[in-house]
Write a structure and sequence with these properties.
single chain, alpha+beta, two-stranded antiparallel ribbon, about 20% strand
Length: about 90
């Protein structure tokens, strides 16, 4: 099965502009907690309210949920996909 050059260009263009948003939360409890607790609390709030979407601000409700669980929102880090981490699209000659 061959893919058209247009479809390959669309896939490549989408991969080049892909980005991910990572929210950073600080522990506000008086005892140390690890990333496993942060992941569990993030999972809880995501199931309750829906996960924050890349490219949109994190909602107040989500930040409040995390605050209630002992995590204060700090900032969002945007990471753009680099060409080094992309899966190459093979070009098959005719």
């Amino acid at each position: 099965m061959r893919s058209s050059p247009c479809a390959a260009a669309l896939q490549l263009g989408g991969a080049l502009t892909a980005q991910a948003d990572n929210d950073v939360y600080n522990n506000i409890t008086r005892h140390p907690r690890g990333d496993d607790v942060l992941q569990a609390d993030t999972s809880y709030c995501s199931q309750l309210l829906g996960a924050p979407r890349s490219g949109t601000p994190t909602s107040k409700a989500y930040k409040s949920c995390m605050l209630a669980r002992g995590w204060r929102y700090s900032h969002t880090v945007r990471e753009r996909a680099s060409r080094d981490h992309m899966y190459p699209i093979p070009i098959i000659p005719d």
